[in-house]
Amino acid sequence: MALRKILTEEDETLRKVCRPVTEITDRIRSILDDMADTMHDAGGVGLAAPQVGILRRMFVVQIDPEGPLYELINPQIMETDGEQCGEEGCLSVPGYVGTVTRPNYVKIKGLDRNGNSVEYEGTELLARAFLHENDHLDGILYTQKATDIHYADQDEEQ
Ligand SMILES: [Zn+2]
Description:
Blueprint: H1 26-42, E1 46-48, E2 58-61, E3 70-81, E4 84-89, E5 96-102, E6 105-111, E7 117-123, H2 124-137, E8 147-151
Antiparallel strand pairs: 1-2, 2-3, 3-6, 4-5, 5-8, 6-7
Bound molecules: zinc ion.
Zinc ion binds next to helix 2.
């Protein structure tokens, strides 16, 4: 298990547009492994390569510890539909949440770690995670889209 340092929002790296992965090598697969480890360790549901300082178009998403780990290289949004409005956070903006309106459905395609074409559909949290991570690849943080950004007080719901 190799953990990588997660960059936080003041780092300019997070505002840059990432380049496509041109060749899927063992190094790329190793970065994806580290990204999944880092995401799990931090308790997140998604992590994009620029968050660990790699300006390449790839991310990992896992919304349920028992569910699938999605790895997408050079993702492209194919279709979106509907609307959802909900609270969102980011491992690069620790401690905070904000309200973001996003499509409720997304169809996304890309490559897996072996270079095979893959296509996934997601609704609700999975759609939100795909769209949030995809935004990172274009240098966009959720804080640019959110309203009501506030510290996520653990006692808030009591
Ligand atoms: Zn994020």
